[in-house]
Specification:
By secondary structure, the chain is an alpha+beta fold. It is 39% helix and 22% strand. The protein is built from two helices and three strands; from the N terminus they run βαββα. The protein is globular. Keywords: Plasmid.
């Protein structure tokens, strides 16, 4: 598990996360929380056993689509 800081509006990141999930079937993160930086938010990334079934290319594509 690790935390990722994302610059920008939480609503934009949630919409991007949902789009990635629709297009790839991969759910990258759950809830966002406000960062100490008011212009950013944070997510917690946990990699579970179900990720072992994914190919590296699938994970890379999902992360690329997020940004």
């Amino acid at each position: 598990m690790f935390h990722l800081k994302l610059d920008g509006e939480p609503e934009c990141w949630l919409a991007s996360r949902d789009r990635v999930a629709r297009e790839t079937g991969i759910w990258l993160f759950g809830n966002l929380r406000q960062s100490q930086d008011p212009a950013a938010c944070e997510v917690e990334i946990s990699i579970g056993s179900s990720a072992l079934t994914l190919r590296n290319e699938e994970i890379v594509r999902a992360v690329d689509l997020l940004f």
